[in-house]
Write a structure and sequence with these properties.
Elements (H helix, E strand, L loop, with lengths): L5 E5 L11 E3 L12 E6 L2 E7 L14 H10 L4 E3 L2 E5 L9 E3 L2 E5 L23 H10 L4 E2 L2 E5 L7 H9 L4 E3 L2 H10 L3 E3 L2 E6 L11 H25 L7 H4 L18
Parallel strand pairs: 1-4, 1-5, 5-12, 6-13, 7-9, 8-10, 10-11
Antiparallel strand pairs: 2-3, 3-4, 6-11, 7-13
The chain binds zinc ion (ZN).
């Protein structure tokens, strides 16, 4: 078996992806990832799968060890990450059931460790937080998906107030989520290509007129669309070109080797 060069990080309600996977326990300088990594084949490619929240949703968004998750994947040889997630919709253009491949994010988390950098000058370029190549693969795999949009990532675990939600919508942002940051920037720091596909499970509190967002409705909506999302991901895996030295990794070449955030990782 060759080592996996692509990984899928499953979000809420998305705890398995591969048929008859081999499980590997991986430790990292940052501790253990959310779960053992599952390895298997999809569309002729070796793929790693990691449930972001751990088995049985052990880790809420603010307690996920994002650094361990990304480091563990990279240490196995992964260079591309597809990161599905559940989101609330903030605009009429992103109704429940829609799939969205966002092109921007806004960080409204607080207190999360969001870097591997501990010394020196290593400032990851993040103007475009998602890999354009992987975004294209996801859009090609999901006809009808919304191309682009801004996802605001909140600290959670509570949902937004109506006032917060209205203020996000007023900015023109289209999605709200609790896990997209720091996952995306940690991937960039390790030179991994990374893109997300978001499933809109509900309208956020400022948009809908009922009793606000509730967890049961979010999980039920996600479950209803899970098989469709898995199909899109399998197709995107098959469509994704093999890893190439694009801008997601090339920026590291300009960083002093003593201060590279990925120092200590072995890379093919
Ligand atoms: Zn890339």
């Amino acid at each position: 078996m060759s080592s996996p060069t692509l990984a899928v990080i499953g979000g809420s309600g998305f705890y398995s992806f591969l048929d008859e996977p081999r499980e590997v326990e991986v430790d990292t300088p940052y501790g253990a990832p959310s779960a053992p990594l599952a390895l298997g084949s999809v569309g002729g490619r070796e793929v790693a799968f990691l449930p972001r929240h751990g088995a049985g949703h052990a880790f809420p968004p603010h307690r996920i060890n994002y650094r361990a998750n990304l480091w563990a994947l990279a240490s196995l040889g992964v260079r591309q990450v597809l990161a599905p997630c559940a989101v609330g919709g903030l605009q009429e253009t992103t109704p429940p059931g829609a799939l969205v491949v966002p092109d921007q994010l806004v960080d409204r988390t607080s207190g999360r460790v969001q870097t591997f950098v501990e010394s020196g000058a290593a400032h990851a370029p993040f103007a475009d937080p998602y890999c354009p190549t992987l975004r294209s693969a996801l859009l090609d795999a999901a006809p009808g998906a919304v191309d682009g949009g801004t996802m605001v990532v909140i600290e959670g675990p509570r949902f937004s107030t109506r006032a917060e939600s209205r203020s996000y919508a007023a900015q023109g942002w289209s999605l709200v989520n609790m896990t997209g940051h720091p996952e995306a920037v940690l991937a960039r720091e390790l030179g991994l290509c990374y893109a997300t596909v978001a499933l809109v499970t509900d309208l956020d509190a400022g948009v809908e007129t009922g009793g606000g967002v509730d967890q049961a409705a979010v999980f039920a909506s996600f479950a209803a669309h899970l098989e469709r999302l898995k199909g899109v991901l399998a197709d995107a895996v098959a469509r994704a070109p093999l890893p190439a030295a694009d801008g997601c990794v090339a920026w590291l070449d300009a960083v002093d080797p003593r201060h590279r955030p990925d120092r200590g990782l072995t890379r093919d």
